[in-house]
């Protein structure tokens, strides 16, 4: 009897251990073992390379500057699913959530970034990675990356626009100077000023980059402004396998727009725009007009 009880307990222990191994890890503890240090208050400046983590939600009401500044090369900001919030500054904010200027290999991942003028702003340098973040209610642009060899992938961008500081166009994602924009969802971009335009994904000087497998929807122009699902302002850029849609056609709206026929639009699905594809070397696109 004692041997049987021991056998049953041993079997139960093995099953419990196996279940623990198979159970999904808590998002907030995903990468703690790699953290060089923790960001426990903001504003903060990171001046040493390594992985710097959040372990709680952080928020601020500052109306200008940057909440987290990356001031060194080879820095990763890993929020571990926690929130970085700036809604307290209101629609007139000029604040950037996470920023870097002239740095190399800056990574922003696993963050929920809300309520900033720019959610993430990485300018210059290169080799940046912005992945698996959620952007919500940022007032001008959610993600802006300028830097050769950079990647923006797997992010969710919702409800961008509404700034009272600027009366200009609004965009979900802006990429320039050789950035790949891959597998992101942009849902809801509202132009800000009178007769201004809403861009889902906007690029400039990005001929060494590609726009691939993204989903863009929910664009809202202002007055006589227009909407562009993907606006590629670069020769040689490739736009492929994207789903671009809006509920009702806007005069002059364009699903996928290229700077010229040296740029390629291929195998995109486009619905609800006045013009499906413009200016591109076009192949295999599916266009459902108004």
Describe, in plain words, how this protein is organized in 3D.
With 290 residues, the chain is mainly beta. The chain has a single domain (28-288), classed as Single-stranded right-handed beta-helix, Pectin lyase-like (Pectate Lyase C-like, 3 Solenoid), CATH 2.160.20.10. The protein is built from 1 helix and 31 strands. The N and C termini lie far apart (76 Å).
Strand order of the largest sheet: 1-3-6-9-12-15-18-21-24-27-30
What is the CATH homologous superfamily assignment?
A: Single-stranded right-handed beta-helix, Pectin lyase-like
Largest β sheet strand count, sense and barrel closure? 11 strands, parallel
Number of helices: 1
Oligomeric description of these chains:
single chain
The tally of domains stands at 1
CATH class label? Mainly Beta
Give the number of DSSP strands: 31
- Helix/strand-derived category reads mainly beta
| Beta-strand share of residues | over 45%
Helix percent reads: under 10%
Descriptive tags:
mainly beta, Pectate Lyase C-like, eleven-stranded parallel beta sheet, 1 helix, globular, Right-handed parallel beta-helix repeat-containing protein, Pectin_lyase_fold/virulence
